[in-house]
Amino acid sequence: MGAYTPPPIRNTSMTKSIEPSGYSHEDARFHELDSKALTDMRARLDAERKATEAAAAKAAHWLRCPKCGSEMGEQSFENVTIDQCTSCKGVFFDSGELELLLSHSKARAGIMGRLFNRS
């Protein structure tokens, strides 16, 4: 008797599971999962970077005079906190502050005089 020779391997299921692109279904699924994970990570990192940039921009301009760039101080005037530049003495209002001051002044005339002639 001669040496044993195994029968030829005819695995047709392997050739059917390979797609024309060269990936098996399993490889394609792992590729899909990796792509989704990378997309999610990029979106999260982009959101973090955007938040960091916004915080840095706010810190660079927070309480800075829009006219001269000097620091501004907050002062209370008729129960409203207003921002006044320490250098050029410009007065700036946040949203709603001017309307609040004007509503206080309807009973009294001359709000601008009281605002700028205070010590």
Largest sheet data: 3 strands, antiparallel
Number of helices: 4
Q: Which overall shape is indicated by the principal axes computed on the Cα atoms?
A: rod-shaped
Determine the structural class based on helices, strands and strand pairing.
mainly alpha
Terminus-to-terminus distance: 119 Å
What fraction of residues sit in β-strands?
Answer: 5-15%
Quaternary state of the chains: single chain
Short structural description:
The chain has four helices and three strands; from the N terminus they run ααβββαα. With 119 residues, it is mostly helical.
What does this entry look like structurally?
With 119 residues, the protein is mainly α. It folds into 2 domains: 13-61; 72-116, no CATH class. It contains 4 helices and 3 strands. The model has no long low-confidence stretch (mean pLDDT 78).
List the helices and strands and how they pair.
Elements: H1 12-17, H2 25-61, E1 72-77, E2 80-85, E3 91-92, H3 97-105, H4 111-116
Antiparallel strand pairs: 1-2, 2-3
